[in-house]
Amino acid sequence: MILPIVAYGAAVLRKVCKDITPDYPELPKLIEDMWETMYASNGVGLAAPQINRDIRLFVVDSRQIFENQDEEDKGKYADEPGLKQVFINAHIKEFDGDDWSYNEGCLSIPKIREDVMRPEEVIVEYLDENFQRKTEKFAGITARVIQHEYDHIEGRLFIDYLKPLRKKMLSGKLNDISKGKLKMDYKMMYAK
Length: 192
Fold this sequence. Notes:
25% helix, 32% strand, alpha+beta, Peptide Deformylase
């Protein structure tokens, strides 16, 4: 089932989310719904707060970025062809490499894209959808998408990385998003 995406301004997007256990109600269905919702809205990642759940769960499919990249970008990133993965109770253990800029967007903040600096690599401890514990190092675009989604379960948004003046310049657009003044081609839920 395709779920509505929570728009900027909703309190759930600013909450530090809580860990879950294998008996979380209808978890397999929730994960399936998150994949369906993410693909229906042309996303490459989706975190539980974006569907109004304050739990440490997100899904990532960076393969789509590589499948749709321009010819001149092929072979540019070490993590090609990308990754499709469920992350439960994720905790970043370490960042590594140089910070690099990439133009990011967010389903909860539609029609705004900005360059954001993030580290090249990240080590994440998490549980997969079968609750198998993993600690893995991710690089490149995949590391960036993971960091973006991880920020969601920590109550942060990509716009938090922008300089104050740039954020001030976007305040009118952000206000419009929070009030539901933008028409999107996917379902959205706005703060009351």
